[in-house]
Amino acid sequence: MRLLLVVLISFWWTNSFGQNWVDLANVYWRTSPASDFDNIGDYKRNFNMYVVDAKAPVVLGDNNVLIFGLEYQYNSITSNTPLYSDYYFTSIMLQLGWEHNWNDKSKMLFMAIPRLQTDFNDVGISHFQMGGIALGTTKRSDKFDWRYGLYYNGEFFGPMFVPLFGFNWKMNEKWLLRVVVPLNLELAFMPGTKFRTGLRFDGVNASYMYQFNSGTPFATNRYIDKADNNVWLFGEFTPGANLWFHFKAGHSVLRKYRFFTPGDKMDVKLGPVNIGDDRNFDDPKAVPLQLKNGWSFEARMIYRLPLK
Q1: Residue 62 burial by CB count (10 A; 0-12/13-18/19+): exposed, middle or buried?
Q2: Tens digits of residue pLDDT in 160-193
Q3: Spatial distance between the Cα atoms of 14 and 12, rounded to a whole number of angstroms
Q4: Using CA atoms, how far apart are residues 179 and 165, in angstroms rounded to an integer?
């Protein structure tokens, strides 16, 4: 559900038994330009996100791999009118993982994921989150394997648990279907070794600390509850030297950006289901962005290491 979880699932996919590459670094820009306000004239909002992600696997013998990773993410939401505020917030995430092959058919990845989710105003311990993930793969054949696991993160809106279940199915030499419920789905067509295209869904949920009127006696702390899901058409190609260029165009689904006070939480979030969510939705700042669903675009450069 989180962006980092999407990145880890992608790493998990490409590092599967049947796959012959692993993505070690990503640099990308995602934008949703000129999105409408909810029922407010002709005003527009622009969402932009800039991300750098890198991983360093360290192989220990035949059955163990240590994984060290770091991701930096910068978000901006701006508008075409001075009547409404602009918002800027950042995420810095460390990834510390261990992957173990139990046998030639099954393996597990365990990863701790500490992170800083902040707008860099009055940064303190309350701006940090701690999470972790366990991901398993069981090979059924050279063309099919099962995926399963559990993700946890201490979000600002409360503890979030995401049970994961899916599969990776190479239907033939050109078509591949990857599913991890409830996070994402990808149907890819590969006519050759230098080009891929297809359809994809990604579900993203995250939270960030934010301060209104920072630097004044009227400073007010809130957290952003971000839900931004997208359906994509994608394509990627390589000019060589292990570099790939990846492009996506799509549309958001059930997109919401809401602010709540730090003590305003739900009991638990289980996948997409909020349990005990008694947060104050009548707070004037609970829905300040008034951001409708809109088109989304992404451009990405990948360093992809062949494994065979």
Answers
A1: exposed
A2: 999 999 999 999 989 999 999 888 899 999 998 8
A3: 6
A4: 8
